[in-house]
TrEMBL record:
Span of domain AB hydrolase-1: 320-549
Pfam family, one: Abhydrolase_6
Organism: Candidatus Kuenenbacteria bacterium RIFCSPHIGHO2_02_FULL_39_13
Protein name: AB hydrolase-1 domain-containing protein
Length: 570
């Protein structure tokens, strides 16, 4: 087809007879009291049918890309984002050139699928198509190839969507999290539109996002409910964002798909909010911390070790020792180390027995209970003093949940610089206020007495994160979950929490609890703080304060508290 025929057919029905789907966006008019951003999300143009995951565009795919460009509105700014693949980049480039849009092009990792599907799961999806293909796919006519591709895509989508909020395997994100990729982009531009200096009134701006069918379909399914059809090559949808008309109004969001409009709630797009950003943030923290980390074995037999993080420029003599909660390893303090590394503090995190999957399980070590855990914490503190050379008064113990109780045990002799409890303010005097029913106590004790260890699962992690606005955090931080956790009967547990309100005379203390904590109540933590004469803070968090999206609120309180100690204040 030559250029003149192509242009003639742009407004003719006969186009669809030759090339199938024609992307039609919503026509926009300027509004004098509003700025408008149109976010267009499309699947790349049709690709060649092969057994490979990375293939080139067909002739039809090239024209589909050109149509996308030719149908753009007149606007003030135009830019193109594409996922990290050749076919999406080419689709964007052709769209850009077809009408000489001259938009800025850049790669956007959020639009990709390669790095969030494991090789094993990607092979499983590709095998669905391979089973439908003859040994030589080139013998198929273009129409036959198209039918095979569409049917294979339908079956692949059906398999993936069957997992819902669950991960198909441990390295593949769930469909809900996939939908969160697009939501993250939408929220980014909603935030931009609220900046009146960036977008003037009576202006229109468009961002063309070229991605893959799984990304587009996942968001549509999440936003529109039961939608579960395949997305044709070159097909997509638009999200039109209009700035608020007044301070008392919110921005307006409209989803335009297949000639129908759907109003979206800016506060609740129905997807896994910012989960992809959380994943990228975690990777960035791990990369930063790796250069400052030293792993020290405390006891080869029990498997206890400590991760020591030292800043390039140390700004304080204090070392903050993090003790994880039940079943969690030192990596659950990832955000904690990152925050204080940047603030110039040394930090350390304990891997208690059984919580590192590379270590022996408790069953192979013999009896292991909470009392033994206390001994491991004491060994670690002595190592920091005797081998690393940190003075006891410069060690600040920071414990989370069970780790807070273990930290209290170690700190009750008034030897250390301070004790900070995250979602774990329980002492002998407040333990009875947990109000555990007698039958539950008996069941707990009977189960615990049968074995000295407790295997933790991702369901435990999900329960501890319950109360966070960001859903799916358990899948992001599941590597913080250890293999086993020490267990004890209820009687042994109460004996282990052998701390009273008169045990802390000189040691400064701080208790921080999450307002949405569904494991240990705010009231219980507050009662403990009053009895110990500790300072008390609450933040917008679940029980998992160290890994909450609002963890920085706790760390900022800790930093202020530690600085006050340096000034001689309790």
């Amino acid at each position: 087809m030559n250029e003149s025929t192509f242009k003639r057919r742009l407004n003719k029905d006969e186009w669809s007879n030759d090339y199938g789907y024609l992307f039609e966006g919503k026509k926009l008019e300027r509004e004098k009291d509003r700025a408008i951003i149109k976010l267009t999300f499309i699947r790349h143009g049709e690709k060649e049918l092969t057994n490979s995951s990375e293939t080139a565009l067909t002739r039809r795919g090239i024209f589909e890309a050109a149509v996308v460009g030719a149908k753009r509105d007149k606007k003030d700014t135009f830019s193109i984002n594409y996922s990290p693949t050749d076919r999406t980049k080419l689709t964007g480039e052709i769209a850009n050139l077809s009408e000489k849009l001259e938009g800025e092009m850049k790669e956007e990792a959020l639009l990709g699928v390669k790095n969030v599907f494991s090789k094993e799961y990607l092979k499983q999806l590709l095998d669905i198509k391979r089973k439908m293909l003859p040994s030589d796919a080139s013998i198929l006519s273009s129409e036959e190839a198209r039918r095979v591709d569409e049917e294979a895509a339908r079956l692949q989508m059906q398999e993936y969507f069957s997992h819902g909020s669950a991960m198909p395997d441990e390295k593949t994100i769930s469909p809900d999290e996939m939908a969160g990729k697009i939501e993250t982009i939408i929220r980014r531009y909603v935030g931009d539109l609220q900046d009146t200096q960036k977008y003037a009134l009576n202006s229109i701006h468009e961002v063309l996002n070229v991605t893959h069918d799984f990304v587009v379909a996942s968001f549509l399914k999440k936003a529109l409910g039961e939608y579960g059809e395949t997305i044709k090559p070159g097909e997509g949808f638009e999200v039109i964002i209009k700035s608020a008309k007044s301070e008392n109004e919110d921005v307006e969001l409209i989803l335009f798909f297949r000639a129908k409009e759907y109003k979206l709630d800016p506060q609740d797009l129905g997807c896994s909010v910012d989960i992809i950003q959380e994943m990228h943030h975690k990777e960035e923290m791990q990369n930063t911390l790796a250069a400052h980390k030293e792993l020290i074995n405390i006891d080869d037999l029990s498997g206890t070790s400590v991760e020591l993080y030292s800043p390039s420029q140390q700004k304080s003599d204090k070392l903050l020792l993090f003790i994880p909660g039940s079943g969690l390893n030192a990596q659950s303090g990832l955000k904690f180390y990152d925050h204080f590394l940047q603030a110039g503090y040394r930090t350390a995190g304990i891997n208690l027995p059984g919580t590192l999957k590379t270590r022996l399980a408790h069953q192979e070590l013999g009896e292991m209970d909470l009392a033994a855990y206390t001994q491991e914490v004491e060994k670690t503190l002595k190592h920091l003093e005797n081998e690393i050379g940190v003075k006891a008064k410069n060690i600040v113990i920071v414990g989370h949940s069970l780790g807070a109780m273990l930290g209290l045990q170690a700190a009750k002799n008034d030897k250390y610089g301070a004790i900070i409890l995250l979602a774990g303010g329980i002492i002998k005097d407040t333990l009875k206020k947990l109000a555990i029913p007698p039958e539950k106590i008996q069941s707990f004790s009977e189960q615990a007495n049968k074995k000295s260890v407790l295997s933790r699962t991702e369901n435990d992690l999900k329960r501890w994160f319950n109360g966070e606005k960001v859903m799916g955090l358990e899948s992001v931080y599941k590597d913080c979950l250890g293999k086993d956790s020490a267990q004890a009967s209820y009687d042994a547990y109460t004996k282990a929490v052998d701390v009273h309100q008169d045990d802390f005379i000189e040691t400064p203390g701080l208790i921080i609890t999450g307002r949405n904590d569904q494991s240990i109540s705010v009231k219980l933590n507050q009662d403990t703080a009053e009895k110990l004469n500790f300072k008390f803070r609450t933040i917008d968090s679940s029980h998992m304060i160290p890994l909450s999206p609002n963890a920085h609120q706790a760390f900022e309180s800790i930093e202020r508290f530690v600085k006050s100690i340096n000034k001689g204040e309790k």
